[in-house]
Amino acid sequence: MVSRVIPVAPFDLVVFGATGDLAQRKILPALFRRFCAGQIPHGTRIIGAARSAFSLDDYRQNLAQSLKKNLGTTAIEDEKLVQFLQLVSYISLDGNGAAGWRALSAALSDGQEQSGSELRVQVYYFSVGPSLFGPLAERLHSHGLTNAATRIVVEKPFGHDLASARDLNRTLAGHFDEGQIYRIDHYLGKETVQNLMAVRFGNMLFEPLWNSQYVDHIQITVAETVGVLGREDYYERSGAMRDMMQNHLMQLLCLIAMEPPAKFDPDAVRDEKLKVIRALDPVEPYHIVRGQYAPASGAVGRDLNYRETVGNQRSSTESYIALKAHISNWRWAGTPFYLRTGKRLKARSSVINVMFKDAPHSIFGEEAGRHANHLKIRLQPNEGITLSVTIKEPGPGGMRLMDVPLDMSFAEALGPKGSEAADAYERLIMDVVRGNQTLFMRGDEVEAAWGWTDPIIAGLQARGDVPKPYESGSVGPGDADLLLRRDQREWRGINP
Ligand code: BG6
Description:
Layout: E1 12-16, H1 21-36, E2 45-50, H2 56-71, H3 78-87, E3 88-92, H4 101-109, E4 113-115, E5 118-119, E6 122-126, H5 133-142, E7 150-154, H6 162-173, E8 181-183, H7 191-202, E9 215-223, H8 232-257, H9 266-279, E10 288-294, H10 306-310, E11 320-325, E12 337-342, E13 349-358, E14 372-380, E15 384-392, E16 401-409, H11 410-414, H12 424-434, H13 443-462, E17 468-471, H14 479-485
Parallel strand pairs: 1-2, 1-6, 2-3, 6-7, 7-8, 9-12, 10-17
Antiparallel strand pairs: 4-5, 9-13, 10-11, 11-12, 13-14, 14-15, 15-16
Helix pairs in contact: 1-2, 1-12, 6-13, 8-9, 8-13, 9-13
The chain binds 6-O-phosphono-beta-D-glucopyranose.
6-O-phosphono-beta-D-glucopyranose binds next to loops.
């Protein structure tokens, strides 16, 4: 199936931090791919801004190389690349000082009016550390570079705790309306994450059963094989709780647990997500397991040992966390949500397992075996859905039951072989240009998520909790199994 491409009107996009890792790996490749798809028209201006001094030619040459590196040479048609580079310019600019701002004003000064009186969309992408958000916002204003069609994009981490997130929100609110602020959680841009909403609210089948009367428990797993090499400082200050749980897993939890919004509209969706976060109970330390990866005995290799990688033999930062959460509302009271995420695990696999309750009575007798339905939503890789259904074991010999999967792979069902789904950043950037905030976090949502996270971290610190070592390439620390076993349950496997 070919995805629909609806071109947008020419716009301006300034990437602050244009020479940084995120801009090179994600933002500029995403823009290039949208350009190749025909969505970004000629007349659009993409301006890279960073401190380094580059001539326009040098910047374009560097960008061409980095696009080739990040997209794979096969993805690039030379002609398209040349056309794309014509849209791109570069300004050397100091986000904290005066240098470069006049040049930026000059670059943006003409062509503010699109057609008639409509303003040209102007996106400022803050691909920089949060300490620069305030200075950039201030300078954009003082140089008269904002208007009603201005939007800013900010990356995670949006704060380190509730107090810092509030500060950031206050700073940005001093210069922009909430409707102009796009806080990115790239998980929300993933095709299958959006499919969670389509599956739940586009089908009659699941929603009547989607509550504590029929659902025994839900497992959300985001397992990664990568370690923290290259991001040691940031990660050592954050850990899995702040890096993944507070944002990506929290968003998945919201989409799985929220009430149907009245419409698929930014505030309707975000209001419902916010209600989920606010209904989350505090998590007791004994419902949390933290881990740190360590090498399997005899294993040698780069980044198999967390403490060695971050250069801190006494580090108590977790590279793995599992916890049991409860949502105190009518729909979910009594249904636990088990969440886990970790680095250097056995496989890269993000999966949500909705485990339904047993049928209330087995008419086939105990010897037929007890089976419960189970809906598995694979977010990445091998995106798709599997529903396990109970049937009769084939053959003579009486009625014995077994589970068979009703399996749907999105790739097989939807794509001609080889077609690539748009990357999360492609979708999110184009949503900014179109002015659609549905897949972005609102300020109150981020604060509520920190409001849930802060006491958990404080509780663990007060207890002097030390992460349990787990072998790189395993499924995580053994204690995480106990978390479920205590409730007579088991984690589903972590499989690619
Ligand atoms: C980022 C985290 O937000 O998400 C990383 O900072 C993590 O630590 C990454 O590796 C995972 O994203 P994805 O898209 O690879 O699942």
